[in-house]
Amino acid sequence: QVLDGAGLDVDFHLLSPKGETLVFDERKSDGVHTVETEDGDYMFCFDNTFSTISEKVIFFELILDNMGEEGQDQEDWKKYVTGTDLLDMKLEDILESINSVKARLSKSVQIQTLLRAFEARDRNIQESNFDRVNFWSMVNLGVMVVVSAVQVYMLKSLFEDKRKSRT
């Protein structure tokens, strides 16, 4: 997501380890992409060459789901379980609840981070608008002062006696 900068747009490229283009976005202000991955190094690039004069502030988050370690964690829990089947069921239920809370908490953190990014972009736009309103208010005030001075001069010149007095 582009938080600040002229136009609030940027090009985005995502390349696979084989060099294939997976995602290509031109002049977008934000985007969410989901990609099935394979082993290797991926390359992503934010490109601002079309607007070299203005710099941009970018927010991005990389989320890796299903890394394969969660199944191993569950197997670690199972080796500590001893006793009857009833105990196994209770521990499985507790483990399921903990994993559910963990997943929901992780999603909540991701959503809050995204909302913070939206708030930062909106704050930057608001500050830019504030500066623009102040500038044009000062221009308007200057024009009003000049117009009032011209009106006073014109009104004064209407009442001046332009005849030369003879004595």
Automatic annotation (TrEMBL):
Q: Can you tell me which residues the record assigns to a coiled coil?
A: none
Q: Topology in the membrane?
A: Single-pass type I membrane protein
Q: Does the keyword Endoplasmic reticulum apply?
A: yes
* GO CC terms of this entry: endoplasmic reticulum membrane; endoplasmic reticulum-Golgi intermediate compartment membrane; Golgi apparatus
Against Pfam families, the record matches this protein to: EMP24_GP25L
The residue range of the signal peptide is: none
Question: Is the Signal keyword given for this protein?
Answer: yes
Q: Where are the transmembrane segments?
A: 135-155
Instruction: Name the InterPro entries on file.
Output: Emp24-like, GOLD_dom, GOLD_dom_sf
Per UniProt, the keywords (alphabetical) are: Endoplasmic reticulum, Membrane, Signal, Transmembrane, Transmembrane helix
Which superkingdom does the taxonomy of this entry point to? Eukaryota
Where in this chain does the record put each GOLD domain? Answer: 1-64
Compartments, record wording: Endoplasmic reticulum membrane; Endoplasmic reticulum-Golgi intermediate compartment membrane; Golgi apparatus, cis-Golgi network membrane; Membrane
Family note: Belongs to the EMP24/GP25L family.
Which PANTHER family does the record associate with it?
TRANSMEMBRANE EMP24 DOMAIN-CONTAINING PROTEIN (PTHR22811)
Q: What is this protein called?
A: TMED5 protein
Query: What gene is this protein a product of?
Result: Tmed5
